Amino acid sequence: MWKDILLQSKQSSNLVGIFLDNCKVKVGNGHRIKFWTDKWCENLCLKDAFPLLYRVVVDKRVSLSAMMVRKEEAGEWVFQFRRALFDWEREEVIRLVNQIEAGPVIRCYLEDAIVWKALEFRSPVSKRIWVKHVPPRVQFFGWLAWKGKQKTAEFLYRIGVLPAGASVVCCLCKSGAESLIHVLLLCLVAWRVWYEMLRWWKVQGALPASVEDILEWWSGVGLTKKERMMWNAIPLLVMWSLWKHHNECLFREVVPSVDGITDLIKLKMAVWFKEVFKEHMFSVHDFVFNLERIRFSLGGGYSE
Ligand SMILES: [Zn+2]
C-alpha cells in the first residue's frame, strides 16, 4: 500500500515532507526501524533529540532489533561510541535511556509498519477519504485536497516562484484564477463533472463550495451498504480525475473535455467495483450506461 504513496511523493519532493510529517512508525519486531533516524519513540527522531550522542556514536544506521539483541545479552542498553564520553555526555545517555524505556515495546511477532496519523483521529471528513476499494494514491490526493496542499499556478505566483505576469488563468475554463478550489470545484468544467456524477446517480441537490463541505455532504444517506461503497468513491475519484486532466491540459496541451473526464471516472469505477462485487457479474457497459440495473441488483433502488 505504501509503495504507491511513496511513488507519488517521489514525483514531487514537497510531498515527501508532508508525507513524513503525517505518518508515524508503528513498532513491531524492529528489523526495519533505524534506531537513530526513524521516529519510532514517542514520535521523536533520536538523532535530533540527542545530537551530541549521535555525533559520536559509531553505528549510526543500527536497527532497533539489533539494539534489542545487545540489550538482552548485556542486560542494559549498549551504545558504541568512538571515544570515551565526557561526564555531560554520560548524563545525555541517562536521559536517552529514560526516553527509550518509556517508548514502545518490541513485538517480535509483528512486522514494523508505517501508519497515517490521520487514521488514528478519524473525523467524519477523513472517513470519506480513507475509503475502502479506492487506490491509496487517490485517497492520498483526496487528503491533500482536503488540506489544500496541492500547488497550483496561483500558489506558485503568490510565493514568487512564477514570475510576475505569468499566466495564472485556469487552463480548463480559461477564465477563473487557477486556485485548487477553482480546479476541483468552482471551475465550470469541474462543476459540470460533479453534476454529471449526480445525474448518473439520479441525485438532485446543490453542492457545497469547499472540499471539506462536499465530503461531509456526500454521506450517502438512504443508500444500501453496497451502493454506499461505490458512492463514497466518487468525490475522491472526481477530484483526482479533475486534477489529472488539469495537468494534462497544462503540460501536454490536451483539450479540456467534460465527457472525457466523466467517461473515464465511470470506467474506473466499473473496473474497481466489478472486482469488488464479483458475484454479481456486471458488465462495464451496464456500469456506465445502466447504473440503475446494477444498483437494483445490489439491493438498492431508484431514488426517483
Ligand atoms: Zn476553470
Give an overview in words:
The chain has helices at 2-11, 13-21, 46-49, 51-56, 64-74, 87-101, 117-120, 124-127, 136-146, 153-158, 180-186, 188-200, 211-217, 225-252, 258-276, 284-289, 291-297; strands spanning 23-26, 113-116. The protein is elongated and about 75 Å long. Helix 14 packs across helix 15. The protein is mostly helical and 304 residues long. The longest helix is centred in the C-terminal third of the chain and has 28 residues, at 225-252. Strands 1-2 form a two-stranded antiparallel sheet. It folds into 2 domains: 2-113, no CATH class; 123-297, no CATH class. The chain has 17 helices and 2 strands. Zinc ion is lined by residues 170, 172-173, 176, 182, 187, 189. The site of zinc ion has 7 residues, from loops.
State the main characteristics.
mainly alpha; 2 strands; two-stranded antiparallel sheet; 55% helix
Number of domains: 2
Specify the number of helices. 17
Radius of gyration: 25 Å
Helix percentage: 40-55%
Number of strands: 2
Report the bound ligands by name, code or SMILES.
zinc ion
Cross-sheet strand order for the largest sheet: 1-2
Q: What's the pLDDT, averaged over the residues?
A: 82
Q: What is the beta-strand fraction? A: under 5%
SSE succession: HHEHHHHEHHHHHHHHHHH
Uncertain stretches:
none
Summarize the biggest pleated sheet. 2 strands, antiparallel
User: Structural class from helices and strands?
Assistant: mainly alpha
Assign an overall shape: elongated
